[in-house]
Amino acid sequence: MAECDRATAFSSLASIRSGIGFARIGGTTVVHLRGPAGKATELSCPRDSEYFGVDFRVGTYLPAFPPGRLSNLRDAVLPVLEGGRILLDGQAWEMPTPQNLDVFLDRLRRAGLLVVDPLVHEMWHGSASRKVPARTAQSRFVRAAGLPRRTLLTIERARAAAGLLRAGAAIGDVVIAAGYHDQPHLTRSLRRMIGYTPGELARGEVFLAL
């Protein structure tokens, strides 16, 4: 859970995961379904706002809201009925809290509204059944994950590099550890995926949604 006691600008990082988020602003709760993001975006949280939610593991999604349709901040906002219930699949669902969000998600899973594609889960971890043609597997991956596997791996590498820099690692060491060709390659990647240069990250002067 996160709170903003004043208007705060931040860099929303490139992300590999879809998820569901709840924003409480001015006494009103807004429910977002979000897909992965292939680049960083400058955003701002309003004063006196609260946020909580969950990122799904790769391959987990709501079939009614394919992650590809939600990617790059094209969020779907679910209707909230009078009394605070969420309208989803024609049903009114009790608004969760940070403490019982897992119960809410389990109810969605048992209703068939939240599913996991096991093939995509296997592909993300470096293996897949040879019985599934490569083109079919790639299509299923994009449908369930929202972006191609290669793009997600690029995002993960940039986020890992940012973490190393924030922890105090030298830029040259991060180039090698994260597998970049050279420092300009690292800089281009971090500008796009994180929103800042390696030097800015290393100095720790920026606010990130890591």
What does this structure look like?
By secondary structure, the chain is an alpha+beta fold. The chain folds into two domains: 2-116, no CATH class; 149-203, Arc Repressor Mutant, subunit A (Orthogonal Bundle). The protein is built from eight helices and eleven strands. The protein has helices at 67-70, 101-110, 118-124, 134-145, 149-166, 171-178, 183-193, 198-203; strands at residues 2-4, 8-12, 19-25, 28-34, 41-45, 49-55, 60-61, 76-78, 86-88, 91-93, 115-116. The strands form four sheets. It has a five-stranded antiparallel beta sheet, with no helix packed on it. Strands 2-5 form a two-stranded antiparallel ribbon. Helix 5 runs antiparallel to helix 6. The longest helix has 18 residues, at 149-166. The protein is flat, with a radius of gyration of 19 Å. The model has no long low-confidence stretch (mean pLDDT 91).
